[in-house]
Amino acid sequence: MHAGDGRTVMTISANAFGQEPSLSPKMCEEAMEWWLDMQEANFDSPAQAAFMAWRGEHPLHELAWEKALALGEQLDALRTQGNPDLARQALLLPSQEGLSRRRAIKGLALLLAASTGAWLSRDSELVSRMSADYNTGVGEQRRVALASDLSLELNTRTAINARATDHRWHLRLLSGEVLVNTAVNPALFIETAQVRAQASSARFTIRQFDNGSTQLAVYRGSLDVIPTQASTWSTLQAGQLARFGPLGILDQGALQASAPAWSEGMIVADGQPLQAFLDELGRYRHGHLGCDAALANLRVWGTYPLADSDRVIDAVAQTLNLDVQRFTRLWVNLRPLPANV
Fold first, then answer.
1. pLDDT, position 32
2. Could you tell me if 178 and 246 lie in one domain?
3. CA distance 180 to 334
4. Low-confidence ranges of the chain (pLDDT < 50)
5. Is 18 domain-assigned?
6. Domain FecR N-terminal, which positions (predicted)?
7. 3-state DSSP assignment of residue 71
């Protein structure tokens, strides 16, 4: 289907996959071929257009691509687990030991197909995200006007369900982060696995973290919040943010801006550790983004545009006098500059 903003949005039913999605050998080969193509320097605009067209041809193509990325990350992880030679051989398979590109693709596709059972939890998350009422992919953002007095802005890799019953809106954030701008009456309800909240006139963000917590930040108005396993409501006022677990507040603080930076196409580093900044930037791109452990606590400052994450990486590396190690398009690591540089 096509979204109102002109972008194509694919929705599928969770039942389309059954209990365990089945990918054909052809789909696995195509996904791994695209994965290899994206590591080449000549992956230009026409190639990108063809890749996006392939992803849209069949719902399972998106699943195959997600699995290909996960497999690539596992291969990359071999390097940090003490197997650099094996990792390099796996990542650069076509040029190693005279192997043809076709044999490389077939080998990786077999590995991908054999790993289906290992990604059941990832499949479930993907199916849930893609079957949601509104969703975004990696690095994608989307605005949705549910009513004249209620709008949503979805950040990267976000899924949310929305329904109106008895003249009241009910939202459920399944994953990711959303900016809600509401002036509805009666108040809308929004929930995650950790919290339930309600607001009638407010502008706020709600973000679900992978560690089982939810963060709320209020930019206008107020928000009433109750953890799912608690009995007491609390109120967040404009300028406040708090992170909740199912039992209560985990931490809270004050906002330093009038809007989330991502909604304005920016990412802000305010003295945070380098690894934390890279983790945040990594939400907007595929693959691995990290740094050597010895650099993890270097402080990062600055405001950067999200449109080109590679330029952000280069700018941060230049400021901190670091080397950018790009082993593939999907694997980037910051390290100290070599001694002879």
1. 82
2. yes
3. 35
4. 1-20, 78-99, 117-124
5. yes
6. 29-70
7. helix
Q: If DSSP codes are grouped into helix, strand and coil, which group holds residue 260?
A: coil
Bridge partners (DSSP) of residue 325 are: 333
CATH number, domain containing residue 328: 3.55.50.30
The answer to whether residues 180 and 216 touch, using CB atoms and an 8 Å cutoff, is no
Single-letter amino acid, residue 276 = A
36 and 98, same domain (yes or no): yes
What is the reported pLDDT for 11?
A: 33
Q: Is the pTM of this model over 0.85?
A: no
Establish if 259 belongs to a structural domain: no
Residues 88 and 177 in one domain: no
Shared domain for 149 and 88, answered yes or no, is no
**Tokens read off for 86:** 């094996």
Q: Which domain holds residue 300?
A: 265-336
Task: Please indicate, yes or no, whether residues 143 and 246 belong to a single structural domain of this protein.
Answer: yes
